[in-house]
Amino acid sequence: MYVAVKGGERAIDNAHSWLAEERRGDVGVAELSVPQIREQLKLAVNRVMAEGSLFDPDLAALAIKQARGDLIEAIFLIRAYRTTLPRFGASNPVETGEMVCDRRISATFKDVPGGQVLGPTFDYTHRLIDFALAAEGEVPGAPEGVAQPGPVPHVTEFLQREDLIQTEPEMNDTPDDLTRQPLAFPAERPLRLQSLTRGDEGFVLSMAYSTQRGYGRNHPFVGEMRVGVVDVEMDVPELGFAIDLGEVELTECETVNQFTGSKTEPPQFTRGYGLVFGHSERKAISMALVDRALRWKELGEDNVGAPAQDEEFVLSHADNIQATGFLEHIKLPHYVDFQSELELIRKLRAEAMAATMPQAAE
Amino acid sequence: MSDYNFAYLDEQTKRMIRRAILKGVAVPGYQVPFASREMPMPYGWGTGGVQVSSAVLTPEDTLKVIDQGADDTTNAVSIRKFFQKVADVAVTEKTEDATVIQTRHRIPERDLTEEQILVYQVPIPEPLRFLEPRETETRKMHALEEYGLMHVKLYEDISRHGAISTAYAYPVKVEDRYVMDPSPIPKFDNPKLESSALQLFGAGREQRIYAVPPYTKVASLDFDDHPFDPSKANHVCALCGAEDSYLDEVIVDDEGGRMFVCSDTAYCASRRGEAA
Fold first, then answer.
1. Global confidence as pTM
2. In whole angstroms, what separates CA A326 from the centre of its chain?
3. Residue of chain A whose alpha carbon sits nearest to that of B20
4. Of the residues A117, A123, A298, A300, which has the maximum number of CB atoms within 10 A of its CB?
5. CB burial class (10 A; 0-12, 13-18, 19+) of residue A330?
6. Is the pLDDT of residue A4 over 80?
7. B258: contact with A, CB 8 A cutoff
8. Measured between CB atoms, which of B35, B106, B168 is closest to A180?
9. pLDDT tens, residue by residue, A141-170
């Protein structure tokens, strides 16, 4: 006699216990600490902070530990936590011109005020597995120099002085907040940038790559990319002045894009902009390319129908928490809708067979 | 779990959701955009329904959660446990005892009452989405009441297959105005959309809420010569003998033997209780 499947509750509890055990792995191997993840898997922590839209390295490291290294799962943990936090105000815009740079490069000028600073980059490493890392041991410290004092001006400012690059219009309105208002189209550039900076790195990368391969090509040069720390300030009305809340590490990328002009704009360079939490170069450059591709309308360019030009397509699909949730939900029971399809297919088949049978007999 | 507000969401967020619900009730079938929050369960797993339930639940409520008609399917268990943890409300499996019922893919067999709220989890709220992928276009089509595309689709089904080949999420027209996706319920359930209960639909990922107030006219789209047919498997429940309930097909052996049982487990259990 058939007994309807019961015991979902016990199965879930057991699954959670097993998961916790799997997360820990072999207990003969020392447990990872959150500071170890924060310090030694920093780029993973950065990605989780960027796509989780929350700057908190310790929390991101903990999320990575809890998620067993699944970064999208860790991002999800951060997002679900973030949304419960009260919003008591907004900071002033950060001044990236005053960034204390660990890294700052321009691909458009050989030298620039403030200098080229290569910084800690994989760029010119040879990708050879370093077997020495498998053995334990400390690395010798890197040689140290003296940092150049003073602000580091943006490279695009030099182009702007000659009027060679399109001027960004001043925006005084407080932009909409993607996390507090439903996304509506057409989306203004601040919303697009919000969506891109928290968008999935892989998705934004591939969208950017598609523009390089010709689907909405926009001839980008990395005018400048800088990585470093900026102060975050907030106006406190009761005090009447801005106070320092702390600092965040950011990666900023400004692309200089060739532009031969359109019906509305003279020939000039145009810009794409990327700004991401932490040291996240791939993401910042990708963001800048996609930002530029999405600006076709305001620059009077043609829409060539490239996916990266389609803001509804890009913005609706950039969020990996939305994407993975909906994708993975097809693991949930669907027997009711499947049953209705089953009935339908049986009915349509029976009718189709009945219709073809006499022909077969002929 | 004192770290979180009653029913998880903070009161400001609940207020925002309640406003969307009220607007939805005022304009039946219209999809109201709302600032959906990330929830502690994934998008696609009922976040819209959970947010709506969170906004309507009071400490006095009795909650029932079903998925595929059953109270003990894994995700129903998970969502029920969530509300027990964050709202500490009474829960029940009995349809008649619940004041709020959150559902995925089914409407309970037993008629609902004016004292009850049925909350649906909705994956894709836009009935026109698979005909037109762009939100900017579909919003325009709703605004202009331009539903020709949908009728053409249904017509093409008939001309190709002899029948409308939509078996679940069968589109309806609400109060002669908005075409609405009733969520992926089997079309067998469509007649029950005209109900004494308030029906609220939450789509978290797509940031939409919509509603069917009690006693609202809900017509399944059809043609005069091809009237709507809320069909189901031509069997009776093997457990309770019900002829009027939607059935799950269960494969019982490796020879392909199968049996049919009520998908609404509470309905089935109550019938068997009465029989015993």
1. 0.91
2. 19
3. A182
4. A117
5. exposed
6. no
7. no
8. B35
9. 899 888 777 778 898 988 888 889 988 888
